[in-house]
Write a structure and sequence with these properties.
It is built from 18 helices and 7 strands. It is 51% helix and 7% strand. The longest helix is centred in the middle third of the chain and has 28 residues. The chain has 4 domains: 58 residues; 44 residues; 240 residues, 2-Layer Sandwich (Nucleotidyltransferase, domain 5); 69 residues, no CATH class. It has 474 residues and is of the alpha/beta class. The chain starts with 9 loop residues before the first helix and ends in a 9-residue tail after the last helix. The N terminus is likely disordered. Pfam families: DDE_3 (PF13358). This is Tc1-like transposase DDE domain-containing protein. GO terms for molecular function: nucleic acid binding. Keywords: Coiled coil.
Length: 474
């Protein structure tokens, strides 16, 4: 028996073409019996391959065409261009707030025909009709993360702190990374390319999902009122040479840090030094606590801390590098010290009488680099939200980071131009990066950045009014 209704795999299609090409006189029925297929499926695979091939006598050309066939043995449930297809597309438009499967249930109640969600998506994305010769792509609502009481309290405290800083004239530099997908979207979300500010029919500018060709990560920073170029960094995979250089750099830093800590431990044993006073203060506190416990009859005694405990030392390590991703070291070497800190100094030089704060979220590379860079930041008087004395960035709060909505504008402007790129060669990757860089520096995106940044005070006030919750719009 043939496999009626099943998709014909690439291996079976190649086998059909191979048998038909090399065995002269073999019938489609014989091929179907050998491969357990339907006779009409074998015939359709062969005829479609011959029709698509530029040279039907070229075996390799036939194989390539056979492998590229899409469901050769399966008829579509709904034909493109028919009244049935147009009616279903109209139902999708009439119920665009409902999921595709819900629209399929409505159509089933009307006609008695049961359609799957995949078929509904194909009708919306791939079919066309005279009234709507474009793809119907639904908008995607952003997910609002659920917040606990601690999250809302932290958001509330941060919003109050930020409002007070803004009233004092403080300037915030928002930074973050995002993933750019060329040829599709990494989370399979549809893309709307409606020009900014227009109120035309949303479906006119919608583009369906396309298979992802490649992705790359970018880092950017935004600040209000900055007329110069905003920093941007394209992340690439770390080479073996760069990994070896990082190992040598960390070994050198660890040796220097170890020497500094050893010197502190030695000075802690010498009278009159700062380290000796620190050790003496700790010893006095331990003695006072032990005396208090002895007088009150409390059990347990605290032990004196030697210099090794007072001045500990830990080696700087990178951990597992098999996935070749972004860690604290790359963030420090390639972003903080190359892009962010120089940009911070430029902003601070332009506004010498104002506080300038760096805003980063709680991604692991950010928090780890902030801890390891604390002494460096103190030496250069760099203010950051995650530093001691700062409020800390509240978890699950992308709505308070004003660079997040900027990604949508950047990708909406770049995505239509990505559709002209094909392949994933180094040349194509460079072209995609050039498109991102051009759009990032364009007046349209810069205007959008200013608009989003100006909404920061309003967003903070809304967060305060909602008690730190994120169930507000605007």
């Amino acid at each position: 028996m043939g496999r009626r209704g099943k998709e014909t795999s690439i291996q079976l299609r190649v086998a059909v073409v191979t048998l038909r090409f090399f065995l002269e006189g073999i019938s489609f029925l014989d091929i179907a019996n050998k491969l357990d297929l339907e006779e009409r499926t074998c015939a359709k695979v062969w005829l479609n391959a011959v029709e698509r091939a530029s040279d039907p006598n070229d075996f390799r050309d036939l194989l390539a065409c056979a492998a590229a066939l899409d469901h050769p043995g399966k008829q579509p449930r709904v034909e493109d261009g028919t009244e049935q297809s147009s009616h279903i597309r109209q139902l999708i438009l009439d119920h665009f707030d409902l999921a595709f499967i819900k629209v399929a249930h409505i159509y089933q109640a009307e006609s008695g025909v049961k359609l799957s969600r995949t078929i509904m998506e194909r009708i919306a994305h791939e079919h066309r009709d005279p009234e709507r010769p474009w793809a119907l792509v639904r908008g995607v609502r952003a997910l609002i993360p659920a917040l606990s009481g601690a999250h809302m309290n932290h958001r509330l405290l941060f919003s109050i702190w930020a409002i007070r800083k803004l009233q004092g004239g403080a300037i915030f530099i928002f930074t973050d990374e995002t993933l750019v997908a060329v040829g599709g979207d990494p989370r399979r979300k549809p893309r709307e390319t409606r020009p900014r500010g227009q109120t035309d029919e949303r479906w006119l500018h919608a583009l369906p999902n396309k298979k992802i060709q490649f992705t790359f990560m970018i880092w950017c920073a935004v600040v209000l009122g900055w007329r110069g170029p905003l920093p941007i960094k394209f992340w690439h995979g770390e080479t073996e040479e760069e990994k070896e250089r990082a190992v040598r750099q960390l070994n050198k830093e660890n040796s220097e840090r170890r020497q500094v800590v050893n010197n502190k431990r030695k000075r802690a044993l010498e009278d009159g030094t700062k380290e000796h006073q620190i050790l003496k203060d700790i010893t006095n506190r331990v003695n006072n606590e032990n005396n208090r416990r002895r007088q009150t009859g409390q059990r347990g005694r605290l032990h004196q801390k030697p210099p090794e405990k007072v001045f500990p030392y830990d080696d700087l390590t990178r951990g597992d590098r098999t996935k070749n991703g972004i860690d604290w070291y790359r963030h420090r070497q390639e972003v903080l010290r190359v892009h962010l800190y120089p940009f911070y100094f430029q902003v601070r030089a332009k506004y010498p009488d104002k506080e300038v704060w760096i805003v980063e979220d709680n991604a692991s590379p950010h928090t780890t680099a902030a801890i390891k860079e604390q002494e460096w930041r103190n030496n250069f008087s760099i203010r950051a939200v995650q530093m001691p004395g700062g409020p800390g960035w509240p978890a699950k709060s992308p709505d308070l980071n004003m660079i997040e909505p900027c990604w949508c504008d950047l990708k909406d402007e770049s995505h239509p131009r990505f559709w002209k790129l094909h392949g994933d060669s180094k040349k194509v990757v460079k072209q995609a990066e050039a498109i991102i860089l051009e759009e990032w520096r364009s007046d349209k995106v810069r205007t959008a950045i200013e608009d989003h940044y100006n909404k920061f005070p309003k967003r903070l006030l809304q967060c305060i009014a909602n008690g730190g919750n994120n169930t507000f719009k605007g």
